[in-house]
Amino acid sequence: MRGAGGYSSVPRWVIVLAAVGGAFVLLPLVGIITHVDWANFIPLVTSSSSVSALYLSLVTAAASTALCIIFGVPISVVLARTTFPGQGVVRALVLLPLVLPPVVGGIALLYTYGRLGLLGSTFSFLGIQIAFSTTAVILAQTFVAMPFLVLSFEGALRSAGTRYEAIAATLGAGPTTVLRRVTLPMLGPALISGSILAFARALGEFGATLTFAGSFQGTTQTLPLDLYFQLENDPRAAVALSLVLVAVAIIVVGFAHRSANPELFRPGA
Amino acid sequence: MLDFRATIAARDFDVELSVAQGETLAVLGPNGSGKSTLLESLAGLIRPDSGTAHLDGEALFDLRAGASGAWVPAHRRAVSLLAQNALLFPRMSVRDNVAFGPQSTGAGTRAARARAVRWLGEVDALEFANRRPGQLSGGQAQRIAIARALAAEPRLLLLDEPMAALDVTVTPALRRLLRRVLADQTAILVTHDVLDAYTLADRVAVMSGGRIVELGETRAVFERPKSPFTAALVGLNLLTGVRTAGGLSTDVGVDLGAIGADIPVGHRVAATIPPATIRLSAQRSSAAGLVSVAGQVTDLEPRGDLIRVGTELLFADVAPAVVADLDLVPGMTVWASFPESELRLYDL
Q1: Is-contact A50 A217, C-beta < 8 A?
Q2: Can you give the residue ranges of every domain in chain A?
Q3: Which residues fall within 8 angstroms of residue B284, CB to CB, at 6 or more apart?
Q4: Contact: A170, B43; criterion CB under 8 Å
Q5: Does domain A31-262 have CATH number 1.10.3720.10?
Q6: ipTM score of the complex?
């Protein structure tokens, strides 16, 4: 392959491996599309259980993305801008859900916030029952999605450096003003792309949700859970719903890519 | 009025200095001599191990052993920093950049904007008010950065090589602008440029190895350099040694004779010789009134239309024809001669 001018030295065998890898990722999409029952597509994806699952998915993913921003941004700032003993360990633990099997995450949540869990008696005393509720769905999604935001935003903070922040401080701006008017605006694109990644991860959440929240239509049955159970009853519906999730994912990835490279899209650049 | 004294063991930094109200102090020194550390500890970006600093009678820090340990954070010091790069906040308009200081210190939006407009006028940059920093040239951006630093109304302005990153074609105008705005501003200017120090500073401090090694009126320091760094900066040969009867015994073991000066024998002295007044010859010159020293050529370096010839003791600026006629190469022994009247001898 030749780039747009300039020397390129990609060996042929690398291109062959890249093509095989690309096909491996793309072929399953073709597999879905060829099995969609197009004649009944609209009724299949608009059945009452699918619509309520899609709605629940979007609402819970939005809520957990908001939680990821509210707590993930401070975590990123503390990790990137301060030093304290044991920081490396804390960073590793915060990023743990990234490598943990989601089912394990669900079990951990169950034994923390569940009725018999660590904080369960506190919550039952207050009359709050978290496990197997919509709240549990949001918590499970936040648990698995937060590391995506922290990972990308902390990296952006580090590479941006502290020079602008130091100048702002010498102009009389206190730490909150510096964060609000200098740091966050400069890293807006990184925050948006991190949030979109977190949203996408929350939208696809399955294992932790099923373990911690169960699968009750209308309250905890999100789209991935719905389509998994549809696979047994009505495979045609499952395939159609999969295509809907693929479409949502493509839109999300498109936005993330776009906001990560804003200069490419600025008019006149 | 600034009084400052601080030590930082990890950076081998130990500096004491004061700057009078409205005065500009230039700080010169080789890389790593502690100039940036000085600015950073004044701005509140790093914390010295010990020391005190007072600005207009108020403490910036008081870290003496047993003291209250007062430490004023950077944003409450009224000490602004102008860096080598303008570092304008990229997501704000030029006007909002300049209004940032006033707004952060409690002025209302309207008042802050008015102040921004006034300072943009002061630096001749009103036309850029609505632009984004990305649409400015380096010189324009630095102009705005000056306005932004001054709009914060600092009691002390720190300038860290403000013209080092700029094209030489824009520095004269910027230097003139700085001379105007620094007239009544208490300021510390870190620079590598002798011209900056001459035009902008009342006094000069030369730093080396985390210490101030020379301090005084700009002209006095530059005309009577005491360290090799300062001498090289102003382009003078510097010899140090002991006054002998009618001459000078240098520290490198070469004796110069026939030098008249009103300095008693035995005093530590320094002597400067302008490199352009030195003649090179293959044989010792016997003319009266000339001081001659032999030495090996160490290097040859073009400087403008002359060639700077380094020898063991002195360097000379000579015409290329001289280099060709003498067929100078490093390692060759050559005689350097200069009129006695060009040597300036003073107490160290």
Answers
A1: no
A2: 31-262
A3: B292, B294, B335, B337
A4: yes
A5: yes
A6: 0.84
Report how far residue B186's alpha carbon sits from residue B189's, in angstroms, rounded to the nearest whole number.
Answer: 10
Per-residue pLDDT at A131 exceeds 90: no
**Rounded to an integer, what distance in angstroms lies between the CA atom of residue A213 and that of residue A132?**
4
Helix (H, G, I), strand (E, B) or coil at B290: strand
Alpha carbons B86 and B78: distance in angstroms, whole number: 19
Low-confidence residues of chain B, pLDDT below 70?
A: 67-69, 258, 260
Other Cβ atoms closer than 10 A to B105: 18
Query: Alpha-carbon distance A205 to A213, whole Å?
Result: 11
The interface residues of chain B toward chain A in range 2-61, judged by CB-CB distance below 8 A, are: 43-45
Domains annotated for chain B, with CATH where assigned, are 2-228 (3.40.50.300), 235-347 (2.40.50.100)
Q: Which one, of A198, A218, A222, lies nearest residue A210 by Cα?
A: A222
Interface mutation target, options B47, B89, B131, B160, chain A, most CBs of A under 10 Å: B89
- For B100, the token pair is 């940032």
Tokens of B116: 């921004």
- For residue A237, name the pLDDT band (cuts at 50, 70, 90): confident
pTM of the predicted model as reported, rounded to 2 decimal places: 0.82
Amino acid at A72: G
CB-based contact B104 A188, cutoff 8 Å: no
Q: Give the B window 328-347 contacts with A, CB below 8 Å.
A: none
What band does A127 get if pLDDT is binned at 50, 70 and 90? Answer: confident
What would the pLDDT profile of A15-48 be if each residue is shown by its tens digit?
999 999 999 999 988 988 888 888 888 888 888 8
Residues from chain A contacting residue B78 (CB–CB below 8 Å) = 172
